[in-house]
Amino acid sequence: MFGKERFIFTFIGAGSKEFTLRLLSDILHEEDIIHSGEFRLVDLNEVVLDEIYQAACVLVQSSGRRFTVTKHLDFHEAIPGVDFVFFTFVTGSFPSWKTDIEICTRHGALQSVGDTIGPGGIIRALRNVPVVVEVAREMERVSPSAWAINYSNPEGALCLAIEQYTRIRTFGLCHGTPDTVKKLAERVYKVPAQDLSYTAAGINHLTWITGLSINGEDVYPQLPKLLYESGLAQEEPISAQLYDIYGLYPAPGDRHVGEFFPFYLKENVLREQNYRWKNVDFAPLEAGRRKEQQRVEALMQGKLCFADFGTSGETATHFMRALITGKPVTEMANVINRGYIENVSDGMVVELPVAVDAFGLHPSYMGALPDGIAAKCETLGREYRLLVDAAVHCDRKLALQALMLDPLGANVDYPALLLDDLLAAYRPLLPQGWQ
Q1: How many CB atoms are closer than 10 A to CB 235?
Q2: pTM for the full model?
Q3: Of 10, 180, 181, 326, whose CB neighbour count within 10 A is largest?
């Protein structure tokens, strides 16, 4: 990408108010390396797509940058010549999340999120994997040198699907671990976030902090005491308990990490312990969506402009800058394990620090994780292998194997009946092979 000044960006699932406009703003702020380009917005919901398209046009216009914006209901129109494709979608949109939780709850599976693991994560993978594979195969045909940047869940399954079934270069991004470290810096160690250096490794939504230092001094030994003094241990009791059990602090908070351990999501335990994150409460999620909707409306009404909109805090543009300029940067990313974590099988998607430059991505060698942590990563990595193959080949038996391997599957009385109910709910959205 050396010497290139104009870039094309395609957003699959552009109706996402959480990601699309924020990522557009991030890119528009990179004016010293990305001089002009095109934003191609793709979504199946024409009403939502038109609204985001209008807001994006206003954002670009108020930025004064030389970008065009186009909208597409068919992703095939938006792939030729593209440089970066963002996946920010969920098949079935936001209402499908509620359907997932309702069906799973009826079968005895409680989930504090339900987008990464558990039966909710499984049915989401079965819906989303075929989409990323289809798009990536089209990228192979018309834009083989493009990068696919995944923000959709389940992160590990989707990244694995692209790697396993296509030749497209890809990586997955999540703000969870950096956000956790920022919280530790400011709340626990009382320093600016940039002063707390860290390393971490694991799988998406269950990474484990392996090192913490300030000005070269190892400050990890101080963490147990400071967690309680700061009140964070009381706020995130599951994370604090897992740190005590496994010897490393997990990220990105109880809401996600608790799902990987079924003992925390049993009805009687939730009732007795009164954990903050129980079965998904959609009220705060709806409130967040309303807030994002208000930002979109303010932008279109001229009450909010590019200067006020700000940046997202996501790291996608950090990767782009390194790939374009060759100036290296290191950030957390989801990539295929090729010996980077010694005691997790190769071929599984892991999340760890990745150095980036003009030659691509160079994941860090992390050595071996503690056995208990590695075993958890291994099990979930194998679950994703089963899920990806199940999604691509429409194989119910593989999907059921994944559900029975899943930790929250242990809380279900009859896994096969739950799987069949989930599949039945999404027949129109699933590939023909499931009919």
Answers
A1: 15
A2: 0.96
A3: 10
